[in-house]
Write a structure and sequence with these properties.
Chain lengths: ~500, ~325, ~170
């Protein structure tokens, strides 16, 4: 097989002592930037990019991509321990990961998250290895209508899942949309809702909002009850890893579903965020015990992590094959490629085979090495929860402030983070769900842009959302998701007519 | 066995940017990190230019202090411009500016003027090329404009970066020159516009050479004409049968439009002449590095180095020109 | 909310404010915000042009829906049977303020003293006043933590954090 031969060659390129060492350095630095808020993913890679200017391209990309895997692994740690997602796609991990940590299962949640990341990435790497050239084509089928349909599918798979009062879900969702709309409108070039303020010009950065809404508000809520974390009595033994692993095979459907969703959405730009939410929502939708989600279910951690990492990994494919970055980090890597004199695009695979296959081989080795390193640190990170609250709380506050500032280098963002902290506290106490707000904040303006671009392209004809098989299927799927509860009820009625169910 | 680059990497990791080199004594020298403001998103042309400057400075030891790239792409780069305006007197940051320094104040009423900043140098001019999908029936500019005019209600779709900016201004200029109408679709980046063209979601775009070169080399798009008064000088073959030099100017093929975009370096306002002199000296050196020369060639930028009085004059004329083009196209914000 | 589970007359468990009052105020506030934003978007343009909606179209109608949802919220909060419950008890409010006020001061201090000095003050102060930790331990922990942050962000990753007079004195 052609791909296998090339891959073997890739491993040959890679299996030298100093490249292996670079990989370890990259992964370790990656976990560090992943754990430090505000630095994760794109920022971390951008900051370390200058270190690699003097290396040869293969060494440089190996180190940077390992940094990327490390950051991906590391991002889950703060989500689970402190309810502070370091990346947009870690948000869905907090939904069940943090409750698990509060129940004293931090180690289990971390193990599940890391393993799920590994499974998702591995699935995507296999896909890249064997289907790279043919599947890259898939990305160019996506025009504005298709993008809109995907966002619609993400939103629709979400609606109707919440247990909160409907008007509160609606308000939360719309607040997210409106926050996303502040700033310049891409399609018209007009400024919206900025009220002449320079600070509002750049709009609301997702990370700033999330650090406040989740991180700061959580500290305030924790303080209400006592001066301690709820999960501090966690049992921390290395055996937990093994015991958690034993339970994982039973979730193979979730893992497989999330891997497929992740790969599919990762190849279409900007998909990792949508993937993590959709992975979570679908796991919830098809679970028998819907109520358990959000209270600390292990598959609530597995589903978003697997999907996000499958997406994060497969996002590199369109970058290499087409020169379109599938994620923020991929965009920075893309800039790096240019510095090293490599032209990403359809010819990269033939012109720089060493580079490409070295990179793909490093995805395998980097992920395996990364998994071993992070699993070894599970007890260490879980032990952080045992540090006295009065010591760790101010450090978390400082980290939140640093993170909020580092996103845009703006003092205003630290104030904004504080304001979001108060909003998050009040909303949580009044049972306003935060997840719809975050989802809309991340995807709202993208969905609006895609819709309006589609309208311009179709000269105002709504039929464009059913104009070909691809977009028609996704749109129909989205509507199906939206009305799923109604459909299930109808199915239930039909069945119920024949054999009445108990309870 | 530690290889040289590993050692370098490790050393760099320990003393990030700490290596020093002798530089000629000047009246002003930076003593802390310098921030490069990129008024655009990650991975775009401006970001790449910033990375190139970082690499050129680092490999040739042109600075004793590290450089830090800050992406301030909010509001089509308006965020970066306003940051420069607010940083008057701070010599520790410079911006890589492009034509948004004129277009944003006009189209979005951004309270900003390039006169709020201190011009250092224009280090290159970016070209624009009319691109179509290689599968499209029109092989020349004339066939394309004819097809656009005949399209009727099925207007051809023109992709571009952002709204009421260079790409849409150019599209409006083509509409005026030919009488054809286009449905202009604004995307977030030139890369997106390139992919959308390959996927046949648009019929044409007016991307910079660097934004479409990958697709061009792969034979997915066709270059029709270059919006400049003279052809590009690069005669190395990019595709199997064409070099940049082989793209005719639009004027040659009967579409009399020329438009280039500055890539300029500005300091914040109210900096001292010594500080300006330091940066002018720095960029003159950068312009001599192999990294910079390779960059121009790879990105098919037009070589240009303008500073001092000539730069001020260039900026004044360019601003007046943008005002005229944008007024005609109706892109000036009314209220 | 522990207050609901263990009703008691101890002063710490008495509610500062009722849930209904907060719910009602938030709903009214959201309604006002929705209307203010709707006005701004109406000015931007809310029509459906031949080639699709204008810039203010979606935000405007979203504001309208939010306004309606907020009115529903007002009605619900008035009829909510659980509305009499406390939003926070006095004890809870005091503990929340114990974190919130220092955080507020910390953010204000960042602007004056830079992030590192402010962090040192926050961590050591928090440990001494709330954690009842020995002063030397608190100062040492804060110093190590601040130095670590400085090393990672400023030295290693050259992220330009806000700085104050102390850093200026060292020429940073």
């Amino acid at each position: 097989m052609d791909a296998l031969l090339s891959l073997m060659h890739g491993f040959e390129v890679l299996l030298t002592f100093d490249k292996m060492l670079l990989m370890l350095v990259g992964i370790t630095l990656g976990i560090l930037v992943g754990v430090l808020p505000g630095l994760g993913g794109p920022n971390g890679v951008a900051i370390l990019l200058p270190l690699t200017f003097s290396m040869d391209p293969t060494s440089a990309i190996v180190m940077l991509s390992c940094l990327y895997w490390g950051a991906l692994f590391g991002g889950a740690i703060t989500s689970i321990l402190f309810n502070i997602p370091g990346e947009a796609w870690s948000v869905a991990t907090t939904f069940d990961g943090y409750p698990m940590a509060q129940k004293g299962q931090a180690a289990e949640a971390l193990t599940a998250a890391f393993t799920a990341s590994f499974v998702g990435s591995l699935f995507a790497v296999l896909l890249i290895t064997f289907l790279a050239p043919s599947i890259a084509e898939f990305a160019i089928w996506f025009g504005p209508p298709e993008f809109f349909a995907v966002y619609l599918l993400t939103f629709c798979s979400f609606v109707g899942l919440g247990r909160e009062a409907k008007h509160k879900i609606v308000i939360s969702l719309i607040v997210g949309f409106l926050l996303a709309a502040v700033g310049m409108d891409t399609v018209s070039g007009q400024l919206r809702m900025t009220y002449g303020s320079v600070e509002l010009l750049r709009g609301f950065d997702f990370l700033v909002a999330v650090i406040g809404l989740f991180g700061i508000s959580e500290i305030l809520l924790t303080m209400e009850d006592q001066l301690a974390f709820k999960g501090q009595k966690a049992v921390i033994r290395m055996r937990v890893v093994w015991e958690t692993w034993k339970t994982l095979p039973r979730y193979w459907v979730t893992l497989l579903r999330s891997s497929i969703i992740g790969c599919w959405l990762g190849i279409t730009p900007g998909g990792a965020i949508a993937a993590s939410f959709m992975g979570y929502n679908l796991a919830k939708r098809f679970a028998r015990d819907k109520e358990g989600f959000g209270q600390g279910r292990i598959d609530g951690v597995l589903a978003p992590e697997t999907a996000a990492h499958a997406a994060g990994t497969s996002a590199l494919l369109p970058m290499l094959a087409l020169g379109i970055p599938g994620s923020g980090t991929a965009a920075v890597l893309l800039g790096g490629l240019m510095v090293w004199g490599l032209q990403p695009g359809p010819l990269l695979f033939t012109e720089h085979a060493d580079f490409v296959w070295g990179l793909i081989a490093s995805m395998y080795l980097g992920n395996i090495a990364g998994l071993i390193i992070v699993l070894a640190t599970v007890p260490l990170f879980a032990a952080v929860l045992r540090v006295p609250f009065a010591t760790i709380a101010p450090m978390i506050i400082v980290s939140c402030a640093v993170g909020a500032f580092a996103v845009q280098n703006a003092m205003f963002d630290i104030w904004l983070m504080l304001a979001f902290g108060v909003v998050g506290y009040v909303f949580k106490k009044l049972d306003y769900p935060l997840a719809p707000l975050v989802l809309a904040l991340v995807l709202g303006d993208k969905a609006e842009d895609a819709f309006r671009q589609a309208m311009i392209g179709a000269r105002g004809n709504m039929g464009v959302f059913w104009s070909n098989g691809l977009v028609g299927t996704i749109t129909t799927l989205a509507l199906l998701m939206l009305f799923w509860p109604v459909i299930m009820k109808l199915v239930g009625l039909v069945r119920g007519g024949r054999a009445p169910r108990t309870a | 066995m530690w290889s040289a680059e590993l050692k370098r990497g490790a050393v760099a990791a320990i003393f990030a940017g700490g290596l020093c080199a002798a530089a000629p004594a000047l009246a002003w020298e930076p003593t802390k990190p310098i921030e490069i403001i990129v008024p655009a998103g990650a991975g775009g042309a401006t970001d790449q230019m910033a990375r190139m400057i970082q690499a050129a400075v680092q490999k040739n030891n042109l600075l004793k202090v590290p450089t830090v790239v800050s992406l301030k792409g909010g509001a089509s780069g308006g965020e970066g411009l306003m940051d420069m305006k607010a940083s008057a007197g701070d010599p520790y940051k410079f911006i890589i500016a492009q034509s948004s320094i004129y277009t944003l104040p006009f189209s979005a009423k951004l309270p900003f003027s390039w006169k709020d900043m201190t011009p250092v140098a224009i280090i290159a001019l970016d070209e624009f090329v009319l691109w179509v999908n290689s599968g499209a029936p029109y092989k020349t500019t004339a066939e394309f404009t004819a097809a656009a005019k005949k399209a009727g209600t099925e207007t051809l779709r023109m992709g571009g970066t952002g709204s009421k900016r260079e790409d849409q201004i150019l599209t409006a200029a083509i509409e005026k020159a030919t009488g054809a109408k286009f449905a202009y679709i604004p995307y977030k980046s030139g890369g997106e516009a390139a992919t959308q063209l390959v996927g046949n979601h648009t019929e044409a775009n007016v991307n910079n050479p660097s934004e479409n070169v990958a697709q061009w080399r792969a034979g997915q798009v066709r270059a029709l004409c270059l919006f400049d008064t003279a052809r590009l000088p690069y005669d190395e073959k990019v595709t199997p049968d064409m070099a940049w030099k082989d793209i005719p100017t639009c004027k040659e093929v009967g579409l009399d439009i020329d438009y280039t975009m500055l890539r300029g370096i500005f300091l914040p306002g109210k900096v001292t002449p010594d500080q300006v002199a330091f940066y002018q000296d720095l960029f003159r050196k950068i312009a001599q590095t192999p990294e910079y020369k390779d960059y121009l060639k790879n990105q098919a930028l037009k070589a240009a180095y303008i500073e001092g009085e000539a730069m001020t004059k260039f900026l004044q004329e360019d601003e007046a020109r943008h005002k005229a083009l944008m007024t005609e196209a109706g892109f000036i914000a009314a209220h | 909310m522990s207050a609901d589970l263990h009703p008691s007359d101890a002063p710490d468990d008495r509610a500062v404010i009722s849930r209904r009052t907060v719910d009602l105020s938030v709903s009214v506030l959201l309604f006002l915000i929705a209307m203010a934003l709707a006005y701004d978007n109406w000015q931007v343009g809310i029509a459906w042009a031949p080639d699709g909606p204008e810039a203010g179209y979606f935000p405007f109608y979203l504001c309208m829906i939010m306004g309606v949802a907020a009115l529903v919220g007002v009605a619900r909060s008035l009829t909510d049977p659980g509305g009499q419950d406390g939003f926070v008890t006095r004890g809870q409010a005091r503990r929340v303020m114990q974190v919130f006020v220092p955080t507020l001061i910390f953010v204000a201090l960042i602007q004056v003293l830079g992030i590192y000095v402010a962090s040192f003050i926050l961590v050591s102060g928090f440990m001494i006043w709330l954690g009842k930790a020995p002063v030397w331990k608190a100062l040492l922990t804060a110093a190590i933590f601040t130095a670590f942050m400085f090393y990672v962000f400023d030295v290693q990753f050259t992220v330009l954090m806000p700085k104050g007079p102390l850093e200026a004195a060292f020429g940073l």
